[in-house]
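In this supplementary section we document a worked example of the pipeline. Step one takes a protein sequence of length 123 as its only input; no multiple sequence alignment statistics are reported here. Step two produces a three-dimensional model, which step three serialises into structure tokens for compact storage. The input and output of this example are shown verbatim.
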Amino acid sequence: MTQSQEDYLEMVSFLSDEGKVRVTDIAARLGFSKPSVLTALRLLEKKELVSHERYGNVSLTEKGRKFAAEIRERHFLIKEFLLKNLGVSEENAEKDACKMEHILSEETFEKIRNFVNSNNSKI
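The serialised model returned by step three reads:
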């Protein structure tokens, strides 16, 4: 799965929290054209991560929900680590977490998860 595909999946998940998801919404939030979004959605459909009917709403499959939840957890924990432990600004923590969530090894992410979780329990 590419970083771009993960970003699309994550955005569908975020938009699902707000209600129905349309191609137009995804394009507006990510700053891409509708044809680019449709191309990405077709690839995600082939991987059985999303469902999209022509001119209809976009939804995550069960497999897609699980994958998106993992991506969102990585994003959230990395952002929390940057904010609370390193004092990075909200804006930069958001931008950096979005990039880092895709490239960190599982080992490094687990260390961050353990660190954040152990520090949150002390608060």
